[in-house]
Amino acid sequence: MNILTDSLVMIGSCLLLTGIGLVLVRKYFHKMDFSKHHEVAGYLLAVIGTMYSVLLGLIVVNVQTKFDQARLMAETEANCCSDIANLCRGFPPEVRRSIRVPIADYYKVVMDEDWEAVSEGRKSEESIPPYQALWRAIAAYQPEGNREVACYSTILTAMRELSDARRFRMVARRRGLSPIIWCVLFAGAGLTILFTYFFWVDTAVMQTALTLFVALFIALNLLLVRLFENPYRDELKIKFGAFGLKATVFAANHTDDNKPDESATPHMENGKLVVPQTYDPVAK
Protein backbone atom coordinates (compact mmCIF):
# COMPACT_ATOMS: atom_id res chain seq x y z
CA MET A 1 0.00 0.00 0.00
CA ASN A 2 1.10 3.58 -0.62
CA ILE A 3 1.22 6.33 1.96
CA LEU A 4 -2.22 7.67 0.98
CA THR A 5 -3.88 4.29 1.47
CA ASP A 6 -2.10 3.71 4.78
CA SER A 7 -3.13 7.17 5.99
CA LEU A 8 -6.76 6.70 5.05
CA VAL A 9 -6.95 3.26 6.65
CA MET A 10 -5.05 4.11 9.84
CA ILE A 11 -6.43 7.59 10.53
CA GLY A 12 -9.89 7.06 9.07
CA SER A 13 -10.61 3.84 10.96
CA CYS A 14 -9.31 5.33 14.22
CA LEU A 15 -11.45 8.46 13.96
CA LEU A 16 -14.51 6.49 12.81
CA LEU A 17 -14.35 4.01 15.69
CA THR A 18 -13.71 6.81 18.16
CA GLY A 19 -16.73 8.76 16.94
CA ILE A 20 -19.01 5.72 17.03
CA GLY A 21 -17.90 4.86 20.55
CA LEU A 22 -18.51 8.40 21.77
CA VAL A 23 -21.99 8.49 20.22
CA LEU A 24 -22.94 5.22 21.92
CA VAL A 25 -21.65 6.42 25.32
CA ARG A 26 -23.60 9.69 25.18
CA LYS A 27 -26.70 7.85 24.00
CA TYR A 28 -26.87 5.17 26.70
CA PHE A 29 -25.25 6.97 29.65
CA HIS A 30 -25.94 10.25 31.42
CA LYS A 31 -23.92 13.02 33.04
CA MET A 32 -24.41 11.76 36.60
CA ASP A 33 -22.96 8.38 35.64
CA PHE A 34 -19.57 9.99 34.98
CA SER A 35 -19.31 13.34 36.75
CA LYS A 36 -18.93 11.77 40.18
CA HIS A 37 -15.99 9.69 38.92
CA HIS A 38 -14.09 12.49 37.18
CA GLU A 39 -11.41 12.81 39.86
CA VAL A 40 -10.52 9.11 39.97
CA ALA A 41 -10.77 8.74 36.20
CA GLY A 42 -8.43 11.70 35.76
CA TYR A 43 -5.64 10.06 37.78
CA LEU A 44 -6.09 6.73 35.99
CA LEU A 45 -6.06 8.43 32.59
CA ALA A 46 -2.81 10.18 33.52
CA VAL A 47 -1.23 6.85 34.44
CA ILE A 48 -2.46 5.01 31.35
CA GLY A 49 -1.69 7.92 29.02
CA THR A 50 1.86 8.25 30.37
CA MET A 51 2.58 4.54 30.08
CA TYR A 52 1.19 4.36 26.56
CA SER A 53 3.04 7.48 25.43
CA VAL A 54 6.33 6.03 26.69
CA LEU A 55 5.67 2.74 24.89
CA LEU A 56 4.65 4.44 21.66
CA GLY A 57 7.61 6.80 21.84
CA LEU A 58 10.06 3.92 22.22
CA ILE A 59 8.57 2.16 19.19
CA VAL A 60 8.77 5.35 17.11
CA VAL A 61 12.43 5.81 18.07
CA ASN A 62 13.11 2.17 17.21
CA VAL A 63 11.67 2.37 13.68
CA GLN A 64 13.34 5.74 13.11
CA THR A 65 16.70 4.23 14.09
CA LYS A 66 16.05 1.37 11.65
CA PHE A 67 15.33 3.91 8.91
CA ASP A 68 18.55 5.83 9.61
CA GLN A 69 20.57 2.62 9.55
CA ALA A 70 18.93 1.52 6.31
CA ARG A 71 19.72 4.86 4.70
CA LEU A 72 23.35 4.62 5.84
CA MET A 73 23.66 1.07 4.52
CA ALA A 74 22.13 2.05 1.17
CA GLU A 75 24.60 4.91 0.81
CA THR A 76 27.43 2.55 1.77
CA GLU A 77 26.36 0.02 -0.87
CA ALA A 78 26.19 2.67 -3.59
CA ASN A 79 29.48 4.26 -2.53
CA CYS A 80 31.22 0.89 -2.56
CA CYS A 81 30.03 0.30 -6.13
CA SER A 82 31.55 3.61 -7.17
CA ASP A 83 34.77 2.95 -5.23
CA ILE A 84 35.27 -0.48 -6.79
CA ALA A 85 34.63 0.88 -10.29
CA ASN A 86 37.19 3.64 -9.77
CA LEU A 87 39.84 1.61 -7.93
CA CYS A 88 39.97 -1.05 -10.62
CA ARG A 89 41.51 1.55 -12.94
CA GLY A 90 44.82 0.54 -11.42
CA PHE A 91 44.50 -2.92 -13.01
CA PRO A 92 45.20 -4.03 -16.59
CA PRO A 93 42.42 -3.29 -19.14
CA GLU A 94 41.08 -6.86 -19.33
CA VAL A 95 40.88 -7.14 -15.55
CA ARG A 96 39.29 -3.73 -15.28
CA ARG A 97 36.59 -4.72 -17.77
CA SER A 98 35.94 -7.99 -15.95
CA ILE A 99 35.17 -5.98 -12.80
CA ARG A 100 33.37 -2.96 -14.23
CA VAL A 101 30.89 -4.99 -16.30
CA PRO A 102 29.42 -6.93 -13.35
CA ILE A 103 29.54 -3.90 -11.02
CA ALA A 104 27.57 -1.86 -13.56
CA ASP A 105 25.09 -4.72 -13.99
CA TYR A 106 24.78 -5.11 -10.24
CA TYR A 107 24.15 -1.40 -9.71
CA LYS A 108 21.51 -1.33 -12.44
CA VAL A 109 19.70 -4.45 -11.20
CA VAL A 110 19.64 -3.21 -7.62
CA MET A 111 18.30 0.14 -8.73
CA ASP A 112 15.66 -1.26 -11.11
CA GLU A 113 14.66 -4.66 -9.70
CA ASP A 114 15.81 -5.27 -6.11
CA TRP A 115 14.66 -1.93 -4.78
CA GLU A 116 11.19 -2.35 -6.21
CA ALA A 117 10.95 -5.73 -4.49
CA VAL A 118 12.15 -4.62 -1.06
CA SER A 119 9.87 -1.57 -1.15
CA GLU A 120 6.93 -3.97 -1.44
CA GLY A 121 8.30 -6.49 1.04
CA ARG A 122 8.99 -9.09 -1.67
CA LYS A 123 12.07 -11.25 -2.16
CA SER A 124 14.26 -10.56 -5.17
CA GLU A 125 17.26 -12.55 -6.40
CA GLU A 126 17.91 -10.64 -9.62
CA SER A 127 21.17 -9.16 -8.32
CA ILE A 128 22.70 -12.51 -7.31
CA PRO A 129 24.30 -13.36 -10.73
CA PRO A 130 26.17 -10.03 -11.14
CA TYR A 131 27.05 -10.06 -7.43
CA GLN A 132 28.62 -13.51 -7.69
CA ALA A 133 30.32 -12.60 -10.98
CA LEU A 134 31.86 -9.58 -9.30
CA TRP A 135 33.21 -11.68 -6.45
CA ARG A 136 34.65 -14.21 -8.90
CA ALA A 137 36.37 -11.52 -10.97
CA ILE A 138 37.95 -9.93 -7.90
CA ALA A 139 38.95 -13.19 -6.21
CA ALA A 140 40.49 -14.63 -9.39
CA TYR A 141 42.94 -11.78 -9.94
CA GLN A 142 46.48 -11.95 -8.60
CA PRO A 143 47.83 -8.36 -8.24
CA GLU A 144 51.39 -7.53 -9.25
CA GLY A 145 53.42 -4.65 -7.95
CA ASN A 146 52.83 -2.31 -5.03
CA ARG A 147 50.28 -0.19 -6.88
CA GLU A 148 48.04 -3.10 -7.80
CA VAL A 149 48.38 -4.67 -4.36
CA ALA A 150 47.25 -1.41 -2.72
CA CYS A 151 44.27 -1.11 -5.10
CA TYR A 152 43.37 -4.76 -4.63
CA SER A 153 43.42 -4.50 -0.83
CA THR A 154 41.15 -1.47 -0.91
CA ILE A 155 38.79 -3.17 -3.36
CA LEU A 156 38.48 -6.17 -1.04
CA THR A 157 37.58 -3.85 1.82
CA ALA A 158 34.96 -2.08 -0.32
CA MET A 159 33.59 -5.41 -1.48
CA ARG A 160 33.23 -6.62 2.09
CA GLU A 161 31.35 -3.46 3.03
CA LEU A 162 29.14 -3.83 -0.04
CA SER A 163 28.34 -7.41 0.95
CA ASP A 164 27.42 -6.38 4.49
CA ALA A 165 25.19 -3.56 3.23
CA ARG A 166 23.52 -5.88 0.73
CA ARG A 167 22.88 -8.49 3.41
CA PHE A 168 21.35 -5.86 5.68
CA ARG A 169 19.00 -4.75 2.89
CA MET A 170 17.90 -8.31 2.21
CA VAL A 171 17.26 -9.09 5.88
CA ALA A 172 15.76 -5.76 6.96
CA ARG A 173 12.82 -6.05 4.57
CA ARG A 174 11.66 -9.17 6.43
CA ARG A 175 12.34 -7.82 9.91
CA GLY A 176 9.20 -5.83 10.63
CA LEU A 177 7.51 -5.26 13.94
CA SER A 178 6.14 -8.34 15.67
CA PRO A 179 2.35 -8.83 15.49
CA ILE A 180 2.41 -8.93 19.28
CA ILE A 181 3.79 -5.38 19.39
CA TRP A 182 1.10 -4.21 16.97
CA CYS A 183 -1.58 -5.81 19.16
CA VAL A 184 -0.20 -4.03 22.23
CA LEU A 185 -0.09 -0.70 20.37
CA PHE A 186 -3.68 -0.99 19.15
CA ALA A 187 -4.91 -2.21 22.54
CA GLY A 188 -3.17 0.71 24.27
CA ALA A 189 -4.66 3.17 21.80
CA GLY A 190 -8.13 1.74 22.36
CA LEU A 191 -7.84 1.85 26.15
CA THR A 192 -6.50 5.42 26.14
CA ILE A 193 -9.34 6.64 23.92
CA LEU A 194 -11.86 4.63 25.95
CA PHE A 195 -10.79 6.40 29.13
CA THR A 196 -11.58 9.77 27.56
CA TYR A 197 -15.26 8.71 27.48
CA PHE A 198 -15.36 8.82 31.29
CA PHE A 199 -15.25 12.64 31.20
CA TRP A 200 -18.60 14.23 30.48
CA VAL A 201 -18.75 17.53 28.64
CA ASP A 202 -22.12 19.28 28.44
CA THR A 203 -21.60 20.24 24.80
CA ALA A 204 -21.53 17.12 22.63
CA VAL A 205 -19.71 18.93 19.84
CA MET A 206 -16.94 20.05 22.19
CA GLN A 207 -16.47 16.58 23.67
CA THR A 208 -16.43 15.05 20.19
CA ALA A 209 -13.79 17.52 19.01
CA LEU A 210 -11.57 16.97 22.06
CA THR A 211 -11.84 13.19 21.82
CA LEU A 212 -11.13 13.19 18.09
CA PHE A 213 -8.04 15.34 18.69
CA VAL A 214 -6.67 12.69 21.05
CA ALA A 215 -7.53 9.92 18.59
CA LEU A 216 -5.93 11.84 15.69
CA PHE A 217 -2.68 12.33 17.61
CA ILE A 218 -2.48 8.63 18.46
CA ALA A 219 -3.36 7.64 14.88
CA LEU A 220 -0.60 9.87 13.47
CA ASN A 221 1.99 8.19 15.68
CA LEU A 222 0.75 4.75 14.68
CA LEU A 223 0.92 5.83 11.03
CA LEU A 224 4.52 6.91 11.58
CA VAL A 225 5.35 3.48 12.98
CA ARG A 226 3.63 1.85 10.03
CA LEU A 227 5.53 3.88 7.45
CA PHE A 228 8.99 3.54 8.99
CA GLU A 229 8.50 -0.18 9.69
CA ASN A 230 9.68 -0.73 6.10
CA PRO A 231 12.45 1.87 5.55
CA TYR A 232 12.70 0.97 1.86
CA ARG A 233 9.30 2.34 0.88
CA ASP A 234 9.39 4.64 -2.15
CA GLU A 235 7.88 7.49 -0.12
CA LEU A 236 10.91 7.60 2.19
CA LYS A 237 13.23 8.14 -0.81
CA ILE A 238 16.26 6.18 0.42
CA LYS A 239 16.77 4.84 -3.09
CA PHE A 240 16.92 8.26 -4.71
CA GLY A 241 19.42 9.51 -2.15
CA ALA A 242 21.79 6.54 -2.53
CA PHE A 243 21.25 5.04 -5.99
CA GLY A 244 20.63 8.30 -7.78
CA LEU A 245 23.32 7.98 -10.46
CA LYS A 246 22.88 6.06 -13.69
CA ALA A 247 24.74 2.76 -14.05
CA THR A 248 26.56 4.15 -17.10
CA VAL A 249 28.84 6.25 -14.87
CA PHE A 250 30.84 3.09 -14.19
CA ALA A 251 31.89 2.73 -17.80
CA ALA A 252 31.39 6.05 -19.59
CA ASN A 253 34.14 8.28 -18.24
CA HIS A 254 37.24 6.34 -19.24
CA THR A 255 38.44 4.42 -22.25
CA ASP A 256 39.75 0.87 -22.06
CA ASP A 257 43.33 1.99 -21.64
CA ASN A 258 44.70 3.75 -18.60
CA LYS A 259 44.58 7.20 -20.21
CA PRO A 260 41.65 9.40 -19.23
CA ASP A 261 39.11 10.42 -21.83
CA GLU A 262 39.87 14.13 -22.09
CA SER A 263 36.50 14.86 -23.67
CA ALA A 264 34.76 13.89 -20.45
CA THR A 265 37.24 14.87 -17.72
CA PRO A 266 39.10 18.05 -16.72
CA HIS A 267 42.49 18.30 -18.47
CA MET A 268 45.29 20.74 -19.17
CA GLU A 269 45.25 22.47 -22.53
CA ASN A 270 47.84 25.11 -23.47
CA GLY A 271 48.79 25.45 -19.82
CA LYS A 272 45.18 26.05 -18.69
CA LEU A 273 42.74 23.76 -16.89
CA VAL A 274 39.74 22.90 -19.09
CA VAL A 275 36.60 21.61 -17.35
CA PRO A 276 34.02 20.17 -19.82
CA GLN A 277 30.42 21.25 -19.30
CA THR A 278 29.35 17.60 -19.04
CA TYR A 279 31.82 16.89 -16.23
CA ASP A 280 30.10 15.53 -13.13
CA PRO A 281 32.39 15.49 -10.05
CA VAL A 282 29.88 13.33 -8.18
CA ALA A 283 30.17 10.60 -10.77
CA LYS A 284 33.91 10.54 -10.24
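^ that was protein a. below is b, sequence first then the C-alpha coordinates
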Amino acid sequence: MTDAADLIVWRHGRTEWNDLGVFQGQADPPLDAVGHAQARAAAVVLAAFEPRVIVSSDLARARDTAAYLASSTGLPLTLDERLREMDVGEWSGRTREEIAQRFPETYAAWMDGADVRREGGENMADLAARVSESLREHLADAGRGRVVVVTHGGTARVAVLSLLGLPVECWSGFSVLANARWAALDRRRAGWRLMAYNVGVAAEQGPPGSGAASAEPVL
Protein backbone atom coordinates (compact mmCIF):
# COMPACT_ATOMS: atom_id res chain seq x y z
CA MET A 1 0.00 0.00 0.00
CA THR A 2 2.81 2.39 0.80
CA ASP A 3 3.89 2.58 -2.85
CA ALA A 4 0.83 4.79 -3.54
CA ALA A 5 1.72 7.27 -0.80
CA ASP A 6 2.35 10.95 -1.48
CA LEU A 7 3.71 11.54 2.03
CA ILE A 8 5.74 9.36 4.36
CA VAL A 9 6.22 10.54 7.94
CA TRP A 10 9.20 8.72 9.44
CA ARG A 11 10.28 8.73 13.07
CA HIS A 12 13.98 8.82 13.95
CA GLY A 13 15.91 5.79 15.17
CA ARG A 14 16.50 4.99 18.80
CA THR A 15 18.54 7.11 21.18
CA GLU A 16 19.93 6.17 24.57
CA TRP A 17 17.24 8.36 26.14
CA ASN A 18 14.55 6.36 24.33
CA ASP A 19 16.06 3.18 25.70
CA LEU A 20 16.14 4.59 29.24
CA GLY A 21 12.56 5.91 29.08
CA VAL A 22 13.58 9.56 29.35
CA PHE A 23 11.55 12.38 27.80
CA GLN A 24 13.59 14.19 25.14
CA GLY A 25 11.48 17.02 23.77
CA GLN A 26 13.84 19.47 22.09
CA ALA A 27 16.96 18.18 23.82
CA ASP A 28 19.45 16.79 21.32
CA PRO A 29 20.74 13.30 22.25
CA PRO A 30 22.21 11.40 19.28
CA LEU A 31 21.18 8.06 17.83
CA ASP A 32 22.67 5.09 19.64
CA ALA A 33 24.09 2.05 17.83
CA VAL A 34 20.64 0.45 17.57
CA GLY A 35 19.22 3.70 16.24
CA HIS A 36 21.81 3.89 13.48
CA ALA A 37 21.07 0.28 12.49
CA GLN A 38 17.34 0.98 12.47
CA ALA A 39 17.71 4.08 10.33
CA ARG A 40 20.05 2.37 7.88
CA ALA A 41 17.70 -0.59 7.39
CA ALA A 42 14.58 1.53 7.00
CA ALA A 43 16.31 3.87 4.54
CA VAL A 44 16.89 0.96 2.15
CA VAL A 45 13.14 0.30 2.05
CA LEU A 46 12.09 3.94 1.82
CA ALA A 47 14.57 4.67 -0.98
CA ALA A 48 12.68 2.17 -3.15
CA PHE A 49 9.62 4.44 -2.97
CA GLU A 50 11.58 7.06 -4.94
CA PRO A 51 10.90 10.19 -2.91
CA ARG A 52 11.37 13.55 -4.54
CA VAL A 53 11.90 15.55 -1.36
CA ILE A 54 13.39 14.70 2.05
CA VAL A 55 12.83 17.18 4.85
CA SER A 56 13.85 16.66 8.46
CA SER A 57 13.79 18.17 11.89
CA ASP A 58 17.15 19.79 12.56
CA LEU A 59 17.69 17.84 15.80
CA ALA A 60 20.54 15.32 15.50
CA ARG A 61 18.50 12.15 15.99
CA ALA A 62 16.16 13.05 13.10
CA ARG A 63 18.83 14.67 10.94
CA ASP A 64 21.13 11.65 11.17
CA THR A 65 18.24 9.27 10.46
CA ALA A 66 17.32 11.31 7.38
CA ALA A 67 20.94 11.32 6.21
CA TYR A 68 20.78 7.58 5.53
CA LEU A 69 17.89 8.11 3.13
CA ALA A 70 19.55 11.12 1.53
CA SER A 71 22.67 9.03 0.96
CA SER A 72 20.66 6.15 -0.50
CA THR A 73 18.73 8.36 -2.93
CA GLY A 74 21.26 11.08 -3.73
CA LEU A 75 18.67 13.70 -2.76
CA PRO A 76 19.51 16.86 -0.80
CA LEU A 77 18.32 17.03 2.77
CA THR A 78 16.27 20.05 3.85
CA LEU A 79 16.24 20.87 7.58
CA ASP A 80 13.30 22.59 9.26
CA GLU A 81 13.23 23.41 12.96
CA ARG A 82 9.42 23.51 12.86
CA LEU A 83 9.54 19.71 12.66
CA ARG A 84 11.22 19.39 16.05
CA GLU A 85 9.61 17.38 18.81
CA MET A 86 7.16 19.07 21.13
CA ASP A 87 8.91 21.32 23.64
CA VAL A 88 8.24 19.50 26.91
CA GLY A 89 9.83 22.17 29.08
CA GLU A 90 11.09 20.93 32.41
CA TRP A 91 9.99 17.38 31.61
CA SER A 92 12.95 17.02 29.28
CA GLY A 93 15.65 14.72 30.64
CA ARG A 94 13.31 13.14 33.20
CA THR A 95 11.53 9.78 33.42
CA ARG A 96 7.79 9.44 33.93
CA GLU A 97 8.38 8.56 37.58
CA GLU A 98 10.44 11.71 38.13
CA ILE A 99 7.86 13.86 36.38
CA ALA A 100 4.97 12.40 38.37
CA GLN A 101 6.81 13.18 41.60
CA ARG A 102 8.00 16.67 40.66
CA PHE A 103 4.96 17.92 38.71
CA PRO A 104 2.06 15.80 40.01
CA GLU A 105 -0.81 18.09 38.92
CA THR A 106 0.38 18.59 35.36
CA TYR A 107 1.30 14.93 35.01
CA ALA A 108 -2.10 13.78 36.29
CA ALA A 109 -3.89 16.11 33.87
CA TRP A 110 -1.74 14.84 30.99
CA MET A 111 -2.46 11.22 31.94
CA ASP A 112 -6.19 12.08 31.91
CA GLY A 113 -5.86 13.29 28.33
CA ALA A 114 -5.81 17.05 28.91
CA ASP A 115 -3.87 19.15 26.38
CA VAL A 116 -1.51 20.60 28.96
CA ARG A 117 1.64 22.64 28.49
CA ARG A 118 4.43 20.78 30.20
CA GLU A 119 6.20 23.16 32.57
CA GLY A 120 7.60 25.85 30.27
CA GLY A 121 6.73 23.88 27.13
CA GLU A 122 4.16 23.58 24.37
CA ASN A 123 0.74 21.97 24.09
CA MET A 124 -0.75 20.06 21.15
CA ALA A 125 -2.24 23.18 19.60
CA ASP A 126 1.17 24.89 19.57
CA LEU A 127 2.80 21.84 18.01
CA ALA A 128 0.07 21.35 15.41
CA ALA A 129 0.29 24.97 14.28
CA ARG A 130 4.01 24.91 13.50
CA VAL A 131 4.00 21.40 12.02
CA SER A 132 1.01 22.12 9.78
CA GLU A 133 2.68 25.27 8.48
CA SER A 134 5.83 23.33 7.66
CA LEU A 135 3.97 20.53 5.89
CA ARG A 136 1.92 22.93 3.75
CA GLU A 137 5.07 24.61 2.50
CA HIS A 138 7.06 21.48 1.73
CA LEU A 139 4.16 19.65 0.11
CA ALA A 140 3.41 22.66 -2.10
CA ASP A 141 7.07 22.88 -3.16
CA ALA A 142 7.13 19.18 -4.05
CA GLY A 143 3.99 19.29 -6.19
CA ARG A 144 2.91 15.71 -6.88
CA GLY A 145 6.28 14.26 -5.93
CA ARG A 146 6.57 12.00 -2.90
CA VAL A 147 7.76 13.72 0.28
CA VAL A 148 9.47 12.00 3.21
CA VAL A 149 9.32 13.93 6.47
CA VAL A 150 11.73 12.76 9.16
CA THR A 151 10.67 13.81 12.62
CA HIS A 152 9.84 12.68 16.16
CA GLY A 153 7.25 10.51 17.86
CA GLY A 154 4.85 13.18 19.08
CA THR A 155 5.39 15.41 16.07
CA ALA A 156 4.77 12.55 13.64
CA ARG A 157 1.46 11.70 15.25
CA VAL A 158 0.33 15.33 15.21
CA ALA A 159 1.40 15.69 11.57
CA VAL A 160 -0.59 12.66 10.45
CA LEU A 161 -3.73 13.32 12.47
CA SER A 162 -3.80 17.01 11.59
CA LEU A 163 -3.72 16.16 7.87
CA LEU A 164 -6.55 13.67 8.39
CA GLY A 165 -8.60 16.40 10.06
CA LEU A 166 -9.21 14.42 13.23
CA PRO A 167 -10.08 16.42 16.37
CA VAL A 168 -7.59 16.56 19.21
CA GLU A 169 -9.89 14.44 21.37
CA CYS A 170 -9.25 11.48 19.03
CA TRP A 171 -5.47 11.70 18.98
CA SER A 172 -4.90 9.58 22.06
CA GLY A 173 -6.43 6.67 20.14
CA PHE A 174 -3.30 6.49 17.98
CA SER A 175 -0.01 5.22 19.36
CA VAL A 176 3.17 7.20 18.88
CA LEU A 177 5.25 5.77 16.03
CA ALA A 178 7.95 3.41 17.26
CA ASN A 179 11.58 4.26 16.51
CA ALA A 180 12.41 4.22 12.78
CA ARG A 181 8.83 3.37 11.79
CA TRP A 182 6.62 5.44 9.54
CA ALA A 183 3.12 6.39 8.42
CA ALA A 184 2.08 6.75 4.78
CA LEU A 185 -0.67 8.94 3.36
CA ASP A 186 -1.97 9.71 -0.10
CA ARG A 187 -3.58 12.95 -1.21
CA ARG A 188 -7.05 12.78 -2.77
CA ARG A 189 -9.50 15.43 -3.91
CA ALA A 190 -11.51 14.90 -0.75
CA GLY A 191 -8.43 15.17 1.48
CA TRP A 192 -5.73 12.94 2.88
CA ARG A 193 -6.11 9.19 3.33
CA LEU A 194 -4.06 7.06 5.73
CA MET A 195 -2.48 4.13 3.89
CA ALA A 196 -0.25 2.67 6.62
CA TYR A 197 0.65 3.53 10.21
CA ASN A 198 3.52 2.48 12.48
CA VAL A 199 5.10 0.20 9.88
CA GLY A 200 8.75 -0.67 9.49
CA VAL A 201 11.15 -3.45 8.60
CA ALA A 202 12.20 -6.47 10.64
CA ALA A 203 15.80 -5.27 10.79
CA GLU A 204 14.81 -2.16 12.70
CA GLN A 205 13.93 -4.12 15.82
CA GLY A 206 16.35 -3.63 18.67
CA PRO A 207 17.66 -6.45 20.87
CA PRO A 208 15.22 -8.06 23.32
CA GLY A 209 14.26 -5.62 26.05
CA SER A 210 15.55 -2.59 24.16
CA GLY A 211 12.15 -0.94 23.89
CA ALA A 212 12.91 -0.12 20.26
CA ALA A 213 9.48 -1.15 19.06
CA SER A 214 7.38 -0.42 22.11
CA ALA A 215 3.77 0.48 21.45
CA GLU A 216 4.13 3.89 23.11
CA PRO A 217 7.75 5.08 22.96
CA VAL A 218 8.78 8.00 25.11
CA LEU A 219 8.96 11.34 23.29
